[in-house]
Amino acid sequence: MADNTGIEAAGVVNHMKKKGSFKIIILGFVIGVALLFIGGFVLPDGDKGADQENDTGSSYADFLEHKEDIKREIEEICLSVRGVKSASAVVYFDGVGESVYAVNIQSGNSEKTEYVVIGSGSNAHALYLGESLPRLVGIGVVCDTGGNVGVKNELAALLAAAYGLPLTRVSVVVN
User: Fold this and answer.
1) Quick one: which of 133, 62, 136 has its CA closest to 100?
2) Do both 105 and 90 map to the same domain?
3) Does residue 139 contact residue 88 with C-beta atoms inside 8 Å?
4) Are residues 86 and 140 part of one domain?
5) Is there a single domain that holds both residue 18 and residue 32?
6) Which residues touch 140 (CB under 8 Å, ≥6 apart)?
């Protein structure tokens, strides 16, 4: 039993050439490849489409930068208090932030909140505003006061007031 697939394929191609459908298939193939090639240039890597607006990598990097800024700020506040020679702070947040979308709030008998939508049909999506920073929920500070223990309560009250935290969420340890 001989393998006739090559002969059968050649017969199909010859039949398509006679009917003219072979040119249509080749033309469709060329157009498809051209569309794939051109489609690669529509959204370069630097641009983002509507579905790619939330870049969790950069929002997490923003969170880490925010966390370090707050930590440095707390250490500077502590060092500005008379008697504090060195300070090291730790800050606690509730999560890493969240996506923020535009909302329309209608008040009346019952308050109704709905997302602001851009586009229509399958292109409709909520209006993305950005990322919110997480809420600071606790501060811990270790500082060297040269034996002045009275500074501990002063620092705790100062940090609680400055960051809008209850005094129970601020801990100061004096060395």
Assistant:
1) 133
2) no
3) no
4) yes
5) yes
6) 89, 90, 91, 92, 170, 171, 173
